[in-house]
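User: Some background: our group keeps a shared notebook of sequences we're curious about, and every so often someone picks one and asks for a predicted structure to add to the entry. Today it's my turn. The entry only has the sequence so far, pasted here. Could you supply the structure so I can complete it?
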Amino acid sequence: MTEAHRTTGRTGTAAGAVARTVRAVRGTSPRPAWRNWAGNVAVRPARSVAPASAEELAAAVRAAAADGLPVKAAGTGHSFTAAAATEGLLIRPDRLTGIREVDRAAGTVTAAAGTTLKHLNQVLASHGLSLANMGDIMEQTVSGAVSTGTHGTGRDSASVAAQITGFELVTADGSVRTCSASENPEIFAAGRVGLGALGVITSVTFAVEPQFWLAAREEPMSFAQVTAEFDQLVAENEHFEFYWFPHTGNCSTKRNNRSQGPAAPPGRISGWVEDELLSNGLFQVACSMGRAVPAAVPGIAKFSSRALSARTYTDIPYKVFTSPRRVRFVEMEYALPRAAAVEALRELRALVERSDFRVAFPVEVRTAPADDIPLSTASGRDTAYIAVHMYRGTPYRAYFSAAERIMTAHGGRPHWGKLHSRDAAYLSGVYPRFGEFTALRDRLDPRRLFANAYLRRVLGE
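Assistant: Of course. Here's the predicted structure to add to the notebook entry:
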């Protein structure tokens, strides 16, 4: 049985709404600047519009094209790159939200593009359903998350985009296309991680499954042990990840595995202490101190790495996979062949130890199985992710550049939504199906309506 949920609150006829959207697009007043979450990207688009339907969005695209304006769609700004930046027409996600359909028989859910992963997860939970895997934050819109290749960690289950069964796309000619394995299959194959280069996604359909329990086990572990046992830890757990604290030999590990239950969530007080007081409140203070007094960072890192204690708990998936991230930062992440992860991580540790870098943020390590999406960071190979972070406002370029040299020496692929310096010449060498994607882009957007400076760098002209 299909249960449909549609966005409400629209006024007037569909034709009237489309006409109002076109008038808004052709308005003369510039909109306020748009900034991303980290604050490192800001643009002032010529125009901005928040369509409430695919038809309104298509009309906005046609009007912008007629007026010679490039078009980009923004989500909640959780990308650290300028992937969504434009000086032309910025499409905002505010009104293109809501769950369009929950289909139990098909095992799918369809969400409007601007729906946040948080709302999607909450609705799925209310229906006793869940995604198989997800990342560790859920503030992103569904279209932004899949377009940049957002992922969690998993031995067998892959990124958010790999769970897509279909999507709706407005292309450069203003047409609305439904894409799946059986309808527009070539667009579906490539567009699951599309970088916003093929068009503007208006809705996404995900495969879902009956809700299950996840048992989480978090505990400290030494850098020496976790690197020596990395392959075993990945093989023995459905979802394994760890954080290494630079300037120390300490790591924090997390193992998530399906369980028969029952639910045993963290206690209200103990959960607040771990997830809010220590991981956000005190960590914010520590990062602020480290920014003010860089020489104090190694000592702070040693304290921080010992602050979190071992714990176990069991809950529904999204409450185990995700956690609040209130301390703002900038990030670079590379996807490496899984076999190269430990060597690269050891090289990164040696880099920090011999340099004068002061790194207050831990380094995050996750995994994913190979998938078949041309521009997925896990395309065609079992993958390990190494992510480096710096507290917002702290100089990061030298550290990130040095870390990037290590990652690229191992054939690393940068996360599309996180900071990196790679261009099309490099990326075409690490993505065997790169040309397949750019050929499709040439066909769907030959005049580069959806281009911006970031796409010109990573995909070429």
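Suggested note for the entry: The CA atoms of residues 306 and 448 lie 51 Å apart. The two ends are 47 Å apart (CA to CA).
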